[in-house]
Write a structure and sequence with these properties.
By secondary structure, the chain is mainly α. The protein is built from 8 helices and 4 strands.
Length: 203
């Protein structure tokens, strides 16, 4: 990560953190009242091919001790009513500002993968994770909706894992590679603006 990109992340995270502090606390209280504890969801993700970190989100699903892997149709019944709203507008990702401030993530980059897939596809993720994982990115903009449609049709955890491994991982890695070869601050701003536009359009 270049010093300029890190500086942009810090400034933007501090500004958004100040703006979203009260709304974030209100959302946390809403989740607490409607769904109970825990309010936050912690998931191990990979910062590099060897270094993990704890990614934070507002909890959008009922708690399951057996939870693992990516979310597909097999987990749809566990999404809470308020969780559907949070996911639709990506409000569940507000706590990831903390991850950005810590340096675990950037605003723009490949979405941070689960250890399971990094270990399954070491060569792919050794390349992908040369860029700091991000809150949004080229693959998020160009492939996320298609990925959601693919995974929502899966009815078992095994099917979700198979579809994600065979269809999603290679395509997202290809798009992450395009981002990596062309990354610059101006391009990051374009991706951030496009992400914001899409979120606002959902509203």
């Amino acid at each position: 990560m270049t010093p300029a990109k890190r500086l942009m992340d810090l400034v933007l995270a501090l500004v958004l953190g100040g703006v979203l502090l009260l709304p974030g606390l209100a959302l946390a209280l809403w989740i607490l009242v409607k769904s109970g504890r825990p309010v936050l969801y912690r998931s191990e993700r990979m910062k590099t091919a060897q270094v993990p970190f704890d990614l934070w989100k507002f909890r959008t699903m009922t708690v399951s001790a057996a939870d693992s892997g990516v979310s597909g149709g097999d987990k749809a019944a566990r999404i809470t009513p308020e969780g559907r709203i949070l996911r639709r507008f990506r409000l569940d990702e507000i706590p990831q500002l903390w991850n950005i401030l810590r340096g675990d993530m950037s605003f723009v980059g490949p979405r941070p993968p689960l250890r399971l897939y990094v270990e399954r596809f070491p060569e792919t993720y050794a390349q992908v994770l040369q860029s700091r994982p991000g809150l949004t990115g080229l693959a998020t903009l160009r492939y996320h909706r298609h990925e959601e449609r693919l995974l929502s049709a899966c009815r078992t955890a095994e099917e979700t894992d198979r579809v994600y491994s065979s269809r999603c991982v290679p395509r997202k890695a290809q798009l992450d590679g395009i981002y990596q070869r062309n990354r610059n601050i101006c391009g990051d701003f374009v991706i951030l603006l496009e992400t914001a536009r899409r979120v606002c359009r959902r509203r």
